[in-house]
């Protein structure tokens, strides 16, 4: 299992939220609702050899 967590700032409300990421997938993007303000955001991340190499979030329309 290659799972990790990452802290990001919500693009809507600016609150820090915790994401649970599956690093067995090399790159992925999906829409998740902010746990604070419930607005949708696109989470994109990439992993290399089971290590997180980048994560970003942006507002989803
Ligand atoms: Zn939010």
How are the elements arranged and paired?
Layout: E1 3-9, E2 16-22, E3 27-33, E4 40-48, E5 51-59
Antiparallel strand pairs: 1-2, 3-4, 4-5
Bound molecules: zinc ion (ZN).
Proportion of strand residues: over 45%
Bound molecules: zinc ion
Could you tell me the number of beta strands? Answer: 5
Order of helices and strands: EEEEE
Distance between the termini: 32 Å
Q: What general outline do the C-alpha atoms trace?
A: elongated
The portion of residues assigned to helices is: under 10%
Mean pLDDT: 94
Return Rg in Å.
11 Å
Count of runs of 4 or more consecutive helical residues: 0
User: Number of domains in the coordinates?
Assistant: 1
What strand order characterises the main sheet?
3-4-5
Main sheet summary: 3 strands, antiparallel
Structural class: mainly beta
Poorly predicted tracts of residues:
none
Please give the oligomerization state of what you see. single chain
Account of the 3D structure:
The chain is mostly beta strands and 61 residues long. The protein has one domain. 0% of the residues lie in helices and 64% in strands. The protein is built from no helices and 5 strands. The chain has a 3-stranded antiparallel β-sheet, with no helix packed on it. Strand 3 and strand 4 (40-48) form a beta hairpin. It is elongated and about 35 Å long. 7% of the residues are buried. The mean pLDDT is 94. It binds zinc ion.
